[in-house]
């Protein structure tokens, strides 16, 4: 599927065909833009590179900062002032936006540095990005895991130059700029240079080699050359004292002359940056094609771990691109932590856990288990160093700025990894940190009162107690397990008994309906709060818009009154945002997987498409794209419960490589349906599971243990155009509280 990937999907404002049926009743409160970028990336690699305009939030494109509705344009055209490194992928307002070390090919004077030029003939594929600047320079970039290689083809000019600006960081929006605290740049002659900039307490080092025969190499400060200078040092930089600084290579260029600039990066000094450059680029020159082909091979391996058969060309493009977006973040840099000196993975750009823990981390556990375990090892180390498991983490000490969103989410991923029998983690040591983390931040109030506002933190903490109790019980710490399990059932305190919905509270990016249908560890008791199956299904039907009229989505700069009316609908957000992304599968617990099929089918049909406007909302580091991958496969992971829910897939046949095994999802009776079909007055018929077998044996339940999937096998689903009674009577497991019994001899 590698050739089906389109990195431009999600880079522009949402532009999907007008939805019909259920999807037309869903309301989108959050930004209608994917916030992805088309730059060069490597799977989970430390480095990315893309054209830089300063726009929100990746540095690429032309949009201003927005938190709801259609984004306003910051620029009238797609433009760039150069090419930067370390971009976000699909996030929103995270306050720190990287985009370090800007490289600008120029045929203008240095005084014009910072000017933007229009981009033409943009091209992108996994690991490669290219565009023409208005100045006539063809720009190509590729990256490895810790390196970036730029290749510029110049027009005929007597004074061409490649300028590196080490002062650059962040975006050209209010509060979006990042200023280095300290810096040093050293010109080492013969096309070599190195430098370190300290951003938010993190020393980012770069070692640079440039193939510029006959060109001069000079340092510059405040857009003025420093003839004969070999080193710049800045011991203390403030916003008021910052002036641009860096180095450049300059000389005459003949038409078609190519200049290659190679950069190795490290968070542990220039010498390690040089070693990283040598490891990936070698000593032969040039290195562009070598790095490009190596990264393409890595992408081919990772994306090839999921294969699908059937599907329209558009559906295959969306699927391949969703898989690609799911594997960009988090960044995992081996032996690169600036905070602990020993070896081991350093995972950063985890923005944010509340977007990725339900869908993306389970996907990594399935198809990239080594990197999933690296992530967990790194999170445990962050907890050791900083005192808590982060909800999101950036390349900066004390970088968890996301605690308002949620609480104690790493616990779900750790519990799942242990249940799968993963190695490489000291589970006893992990348990110590998990238990301690439950008392921090909002956890203190939960411990004392069993109730926390914002109320969603009550659900988070109760669930994390359950996940931690599972690990404690597996490690034979019965006393701790009993205490945690008892507290885990305080989730009930979050609900209003008379309505079966969450209590009134503050809600982050949603309302109480969006959060009321989360998949808890005791869904049987949760359903009883709503009056049993019928009451629960009636509430879900209302939430998903059965029988409702189509709604109007917010436009550019929606007014508060318009947004208040939208929130008052108490409606599913249609994957425009993540808080209710697991809600369609709540029907499984009430014996109505056919309803799940209708909602997921409608979502896959209307809410995702091809082209730059093909995403319904922020991709959020791959959390949204991972949802699409799972939904297309007909599986949904219940994070923290070692469980998959089963639904009709979007493809006739799919194969997922899990470790050394393969899990195959095959169908009979599958009907091919296009995506985004405009002009229909209702959804295409949903496909419903009529019966199922697992490894040739009848499967009467609509769920599987995650271990069944991870050990490999064959799931066969017989599909039909009408609902059936399949899986109505066998519900996914619920975990009610019971004290563990002491051993018989005590």
UniProtKB/TrEMBL annotation:
GO terms for molecular function: carbohydrate binding; peptide-N4-(N-acetyl-beta-glucosaminyl)asparagine amidase activity. The keyword Cytoplasm does not apply. Signal peptide: none annotated. It comes from the Bacteria. Pfam families: Glyco_hydro_92, Glyco_hydro_92N. Residues 723-746 are annotated as: Disordered. The keyword rRNA-binding does not apply. GO terms for biological process: carbohydrate metabolic process; glycoprotein catabolic process. Residues 735-746 have a biased composition (Polar residues). Residues 272-720 form the Glycosyl hydrolase family domain. GO terms for cellular component: cytosol. Keywords: Hydrolase. Residues 5-266 form the Glycosyl hydrolase family 92 N-terminal domain. This is Glycoside hydrolase.
